[in-house]
Amino acid sequence: MMSTTKFQLLAVAVAVSASTAALGQDGVAAGNIYLITDTTKYDETNKYVFEVDGPHTPTPRLPDGTPDLSGDGVWSLGWVPNFANAQAKPGPAPAKPWVEAMWVYNNQNASKYDPQGFCIPPGGPRSMATPYPAEIIQHRDRILIVFEGGGHVWREIHMDGRPLPENPNPTYFGYSVGRWEGDTLVIETVGYNEKTWLDYSGYLHTEQLRTTEYITRPYKEKLNYKVTIDDPGAFNAPWTAEWDIRWAEGQELNDYICQENNQFLIDLHDDLDEPFFSKTSGL
Questions:
Q1: pLDDT of residue 282
Q2: What is the predicted pLDDT for the residue at 277?
Q3: Separation in Å, CA 115 to CA 29, 58, 72, 280
Q4: pLDDT tens, position by position, 209-235
Q5: For residues 138 and 68, is the Cβ–Cβ distance under 8 A?
Q6: What is the pLDDT of residues 50-70, one digit of tens each?
Q7: Which residues share a beta bridge with 34?
Q8: Are 251 and 73 in contact (CB under 8 A)?
């Protein structure tokens, strides 16, 4: 077991506080999140896919019959620290040697250089695995997802039938277009920048990253999220991760500012045990 830093403990504490599920003795949150501090551990099965305890209310729908992904509440996102552990068969991602080397390095230092710890937006699919609530807003020609945590940001998904741009300006969330295939929302995204990690465990990606997300609401109390990661600059083949998300009826998003009192940045030291940020002169 690797040593645990204050930031790892903070991440676990945040995941616990953000979850409404009770933790079992083995560290498995009943139907919501699965907490591990060793991100090099792989489970025998994908523990992030679950059935919600209690009622399974029929999927709410809009007047045109489209599944309603919103309601009087929010989605209680769980913590998925290593996407490779959320594959149908958990195991190492098909990473290229440079990605594997950086992943090992990030695990050895307990992910202390994780951009999200610097209040950088999570970007991409990691936004759906950062343990703060999120709200989905469906409009006539677009869908917005608003995130309480991870920089308190939002993403926009165009639903008007437009194609993906050929040469988009790289951004944290990329450029997304979506469509409905039956009751499944399919979202294709390109144009990611390289300023984020795919997950907390430290898998990196390039601007070649392309994701295809599949979102369904099989019943009111659960959202199923699946993403295929295709990045020929970082991985030898496309791979897919999947997890479920619990609905929190009646809950609202709170005002969360990552930069406020970020003690992690104040205490952060580099590999030579020097302060990562130098103190400035003046007041």
A1: 63
A2: 83
A3: 26, 39, 32, 22
A4: 999 999 999 999 999 999 999 999 999
A5: yes
A6: 999 999 999 999 999 999 999
A7: 28
A8: yes
CA–chain centroid gap for 10, Å, is 17
- Report the relative pairing of strands 133-138 and 142-147 from DSSP bridges: antiparallel
Q: Which of 226, 266, 224 is nearest to 247 (CA)?
A: 224
CA 270, 79, 184, 90 torsion: positive or negative? positive
Give 247's contacts (C-beta < 8 A, 6+ positions apart): 52, 71, 73, 74, 75, 76, 220, 221, 222, 223
Q: 3-state secondary structure string, the chain?
A: CCCCCHHHHHHHHHHHHHCCCCECCCCEECCCCECCCCCCCCCCCCCCCCCCCCCCCCCCECCCCCECCCCCEEEECCCCCCHHHHCCCCCCCCECHHHHHHHHHHHHCCCCCCHHHHCCCCCHHHHHHCCCEEEEEECCCEEEEEECCCCCCEEEEECCCCCCCCCCCCECCCEEEEEEECCEEEEEEECECCCCCCCCCCCCCCCCCEEEEEEEEEECCEEEEEEEEECCCCECCCEEEEEEEEEEECCCCCCCCCCCCCHHHHHCECCCCCECCCCCCCC
Distance between first and last Cα of the chain: 42
Name the token pair of 95.
């990473």
CB 11 within 8 A of CB 40: no
Distance CA 210, CA 192 (A): 8
Residues 44 and 50: their CA atoms lie apart, in Å, by 15
Tokens of 130: 């950062």
Task: Specify whether the CB–CB gap between 95 and 36 falls below 8 A.
Answer: no
Low-confidence ranges of the chain (pLDDT < 70): 1-37, 281-283
If you count them, how many residues does the chain have? 283
